[in-house]
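User: quick one
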Amino acid sequence: MSRTGFINARLIDPASGLDEPGNLLVEDGKIADLGPTLFNDSIPDGVEIVDCRGHILSPGLIDMRVFTGEPGAEHRETLRTASLAAAAGGVTTLIVMPNTHPAIDDVALVDFIERRSRDTGVVNIHPMAALTKGIAGKEMTEIGLLKEAGAVAFTDGDRAVADAQIMRRILSYAANFDALVVQHAEVAELARGVMNESELSGRLGLSGIPAIAETIMIERDLRLLETTGGRYHVSQISCAASVEIIARARRHGLKVTCGVSSAHLSLNENDVQSYRTFFKLSPPLRSEDDRRALVAGLADGTIDVIVSSHDPQDAEVKRHPFAQAAFGAIGLETLLASSLALVHNGDLPLERLLSAMTHVPADLLGLKTGRLAAGLPADLVIFNPGVPWVVNADELHSISKNTPFEDRRLQGRVMRTVVGGQTVYQQD
Amino acid sequence: MTNTNAQTAPIFPHKHLLGIEGLSATDITTLLDLADGYVLQNRQADKKSSALRGRTQINLFFEASTRTQSSFELAGKRLGADVMNMSVSSSSIKKGETLVDTAMTLNAMHPDLIIIRHGDSGAVELLSQKVSCSVINAGDGSHEHPTQALLDALTIRRRKGKLEGLTVAICGDILHSRVARSNILLLNIMGARVRVIAPPTLLPKGIERFGVEVFHDMRKGLEGCDIVMMLRLQLERMSGSYVPSQREYFHYYGLDYDKLSCARPDALVMHPGPMNRGVEIDSAVADDINRSVIREQVEMGVAVRMAVLDSLARNLPNEAAL
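Assistant: Done. Structure below.
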């Protein structure tokens, strides 16, 4: 029996509200015990000791929105390199999007992801399966069988299900399996632009994507949800109006949840200013007012989860004029550190920030992790929230280096990441 | 040191001309004053001078252009530069070599000045970061076309004696127009009052914060104007996507004598070309030598581009870089 004792930790378990100095014992990959009085008498023989030096020990992070290139575009990112980036970012469970070649729309492909992840990855990886076959938006996938095979939720990833009738049937059918339906909320016809539609897009001469491209789709889906029942999740919202819509729907009792990306919490459209394509995201970075509304929505619980929306794109598709460049930015490795800025700024408490990346996504996806509790897998992160560092793109673990945080100063660094009791990352 | 010579002393504190944004009123006045001199030079029998002797100028046009490209070519040649024209159809670029690779290849040939036109906003700025020479923006997408705004300003200043205090109406497809953006910026810097006149579908979001007055009714918008600046409307935008038809567009936004009568009696008519006669401008108005300065704009274009080339070349290193 392998036993590891994590001592001198500041234990934070956002699910139970625990935040106090203490120790934690891991036995055979599972949390065996924890608390301020554990090891008070003595440390038992045969326990390997990890000294946390007063840093925070919390459940490892769960990132609900990660794109990789496997299968089909391994030059951008493989499941292994994504998992290495995740480990360095304190993420112990990542959920990959089905937008691969081929798309994850079949039981065999869910098996492939699970198997490849187990064989090559260093953190837990689960797939969301496609909502429609080939992500073509026309025919629904085998939601029941895919769920049994291990798909934790269903989404067309970076594509919206545009056809209202298809979406209505998907919501209705998925409700029967209690499957989570995840929408990339965007009306394609309104979203042909390349950045937020605003005074700035007008000045830069770039075509805009208005906020209504997002809100119209969310409003439509909520109308459908009223009639179908089931669980509906917006993968990431980007504007103040969406926060209001979600809050209102929830007051009316709809089972709607939503996420926000760490980039949208700390950046805004002004970062696009000099046509930097690493800031070209979908949905687009919006105004500072929108960013503040997203932060407020996260603080008051309207927004449930924070995602990295990690989307590796190589230089060949990013080194173009803004309008021609691909959408997307990587974010696994900067997820925690960039989000911690909100805590340092006093925008929200640390516990709320960690909730949005631990037990809340775990519950949404039905995962038995995200908490510090005896019997659960020892998926842990030890981090020092105060240590400053500068993001050096060359040092990131992702194959693609398209980080919008390049050369930025962030505060808060992962010291050690533990998955199933095994250390998978350690800061030198 | 040759820099003590007034003819070659630096006068313009920028390495590139990427847009009007970032220029000061002094920068603009300096360029216009210099251009005034070149207007005279261009009207003489001997039009050559030597400010750019030994320099290599590359005209890199990713979008078809006759007027702007030939204007830059002539400007460079009259200043004694070796001028090379490169027209690259955007389709071949997309298929093979990337934009950045093209720029790096050209940069290896040691040009001193590259003039770039590209269909995407921001493309010229992107390229300016990848090359070591001076870059002039000859139009990038819907963003800026600084030499057009400068030649418009020179035309107005020579006719009206000033820019400050004039009321200028810019009419047409503001949404897609780099000419409009550069002109709005320049005219604001120089103290003119700017109006834009267009249907709502051809105006960018937030236009009211660009420092302009917005009009949808052309007659009202033209009242009291000193300058009427017409913009080209691309024909494919007139078949129902932005406006219903050519006929309806001309009815409400085409410049004819009837609408022009709302402006001041001495108002001048301008157009950056090429014109769609009968679509945005009536032929008779365009050709009226008392009102239209459209051909004069072309003449001023060469002089302004000579002034820009000259002032940027003065900042170039004279010693070979090792």
